[in-house]
TrEMBL record:
Keyword Cell cycle: no
Protein family membership: Belongs to the RNA methyltransferase TrmD family.
Chief location: cytoplasm
Location of this chain's protein in the cell: Cytoplasm
Organism: Candidatus Kuenenbacteria bacterium CG23_combo_of_CG06-09_8_20_14_all_39_39
Keyword GTP-binding among record annotations: no
Any one GO MF annotation of this record: tRNA (guanine(37)-N1)-methyltransferase activity
Entry's Gene Ontology cellular component terms: cytosol
Function field: Specifically methylates guanosine-37 in various tRNAs.
Matching Pfam families: tRNA_m1G_MT (PF01746)
Record-listed S-adenosyl-L-methionine binding positions: G111
Residue ranges occupied by any tRNA methyltransferase TRMD/TRM10-type domain in the UniProt entry: 1-232
Protein name, UniProt field: tRNA (guanine-N(1)-)-methyltransferase
Enzymatic reactions: guanosine(37) in tRNA + S-adenosyl-L-methionine = N(1)-methylguanosine(37) in tRNA + S-adenosyl-L-homocysteine + H(+)
């Protein structure tokens, strides 16, 4: 899977994609992450990529031309999607991440300032928001999607089973049919514990302790499985 990210801040990505799962996935050649500096496609020597909005109003708007030129330069795979990050776009979800993980290439356009000239709509497949709030740029949203999608690519995670049990995974949707219509209830992952068995701490000068539920120490996987199903968050 190839990820191509159009941005005016390519350096934002360096350290995040050079650690942990994203780094391992690149080393295993399961994914490729490339950034494209939109300023390289600017027309003037000052590398201008934004201008005042027509009709007036606050802030600056990113020009469509550098985006168009950069998109034209990127070799597109057959199964690809061009995504404009936009707080007013479709809300990103695990379901979308699953669909994206079947593609060969995802291309992201990261907006800044007041966003991108609306004529960019002609060159994108969809607009995606990572949540109902406004960030300063599309770089964190792009990284969020890259990471959520990468985790689903076969071979990326060491333990395949962790995907099956994970919150929002297919397994975690329970269909409830009551009278008219069908409802989906999300089963979040069960609580997890690790060593020590008893964690001692202080609260208002008094010694306290927190123990791991005994059942998890029983070694009985059937009973543990039932407990986990019952205790999904
Ligand atoms: N003026 C825009 C508005 O009111 O909708 C906000 C622009 S925002 C300051 C700059 C850029 O950050 C956007 O063009 C978009 O690329 C990105 N962005 C901000 N919040 C986002 C979100 N929740 N999801 C996806 N992208 C977001």
């Amino acid at each position: 899977m190839k990820f191509d990210i159009l941005t005016i801040f390519p350096n934002i990505f360096g350290s995040y994609v050079s650690e942990s799962i994203l780094w391992r996935a690149q080393k295993k050649k399961l994914i490729k992450i490339r950034t494209h500096n939109l300023r390289d496609a600017a027309k003037d020597r000052h590398k201008t990529i934004d201008d005042k909005p027509y009709g007036g109003g606050p802030g600056m708007v990113m020009m469509v031309e550098p985006v168009y030129k950069t998109l034209k330069k990127i070799k597109k795979a057959k199964k690809s999607q061009v995504i404009l990050l936009d707080p007013a776009g479709r809300q990103f979800s695990q379901k979308m991440a699953e669909k994206f993980s079947q593609l060969d290439q995802l291309i992201f356009i990261c907006g800044r300032y007041e966003g991108v000239d609306a004529r960019v709509n002609k060159f994108i497949d969809q607009k995606i928001s990572i949540g109902p709030y406004v960030l300063s740029g599309g770089e964190l949203p792009a990284l969020t999607i890259v990471e959520a999608v990468t985790r689903l690519i076969p071979g990326v995670l060491g333990n395949k089973e962790s995907l099956l049990e994970e919150t929002f995974s297919n397994n975690s949707f329970k269909i409830q049919s009551r009278g008219r219509g069908t409802k989906f209830k999300i089963n979040y992952e069960y609580p997890q514990y690790t060593r020590p068995e008893i964690f001692a701490y202080q609260e208002k000068g008094k010694k306290k302790k927190l123990s791991v539920p005994r059942i998890l120490l029983s070694g009985n996987h059937q009973v543990i499985g039932e407990w986990r199903r019952k205790h999904r968050k």
